[in-house]
Amino acid sequence: MSFSFTSLIPGVGHEYAHVATAGIVTAGLVGTALVARAQLGTGETAVVPASKFSVRGFFEFVTEFIQGLVDMVMGHEGRAFIPLFASVFTFVLINNLVGVVPGMTPATENLNTTLAMGLFIFLYYNYYGLKENGVSYLKHFLGPVLWLGPLMLVIELISHFVRPVSLGLRLANVMRGDHTVVGIFLDLVPLALPIPFYILGIFVCFVQAFVFTLLSMVYVAMATAHDH
Q1: What pLDDT shows up at residue 70?
Q2: How far is residue 161 from each of residues 93, 105, 143, 211, 221, measured CA to CA in Å?
Q3: 56 with 39: CB under 8 angstroms?
Q4: Burial category of 184 from C-beta neighbours within 10 Å (exposed 0-12, middle 13-18, buried 19 and up)
């Protein structure tokens, strides 16, 4: 089992290192969000984009990126979900990047964390599916042909219950593999050689945050569509 600084916290140990990391990242994100809100100001200042790199500029960049993705996947009506998707993307990304730091265990490397996140998305899109479409939301579980309803119900239920598991497994396994490779080369040759793997690892961190957010977005879009 690899060393982790968070495991040195009293009462944490290796078993709950991912919980400690998630807590630290969450506290850090809340703190930086408050700083960004203070930098935002009021009135005309609040609507003018940041002119230089800052905490506010980072959150503006993430929000604009997610907004473009939402417009492409869900259309203009999906903008109400931007806060959720921006939060998910930022949380996953920062936790992924924490794993690149030697001696840190990312929360997204632990299956318990990623499955919990997948379950949250599962409950979220089903809740909003029912909220937007009412009982009609349940009709799409039966398929377009009435006599195939029982068979389609089984298939659709399996498909939906697999989604949170697939989200969690994909993220946890990829991040664990990525950080394991970086760790191996860092142990073998601490200087120079690990640099390309660090660069690749950072790229994977961004890609996995993007994939998790995009799939979550697709699930919400499918659930809230008004053509069931």
Answers
A1: 94
A2: 25, 28, 17, 19, 17
A3: yes
A4: exposed
Q: What is the domain extent for residue 210?
A: 5-224
Q: Which of 34, 48, 38, 30 is nearest to 90 (CA)?
A: 30
Of residues 101 and 216, which shows the higher confidence score? 216
Q: pLDDT: is 164 or 188 the higher one?
A: 164
* Burial class of 154 by CB neighbour count within 10 A (0 to 12, 13 to 18, 19+): exposed
The helix-helix angle for 149-188 and 111-133 (nearest 10°) equals 150
Q: What is the DSSP string of 166-204?
A: HHHHHHHHHHHHHHHHHHHHHHH--SSTHHHHHHHHHHH
| Of 86-90, 142-146, 149-153, 195-199, the least confident | 142-146
**Number of domains within the chain:** 1
The residue whose two tokens read 């039966």 is: 142
Measured in Å, how far apart are the chain's first and last C-alpha atoms?
48
Structure tokens at 226: 């008004």
Interval 51-100: pLDDT, tens: 677 788 888 889 999 999 999 999 888 889 999 999 999 999 999 998 88
User: Does the CA dihedral 185-190-196-200 come out positive or negative?
Assistant: positive
Amino acid occupying residue 37: R
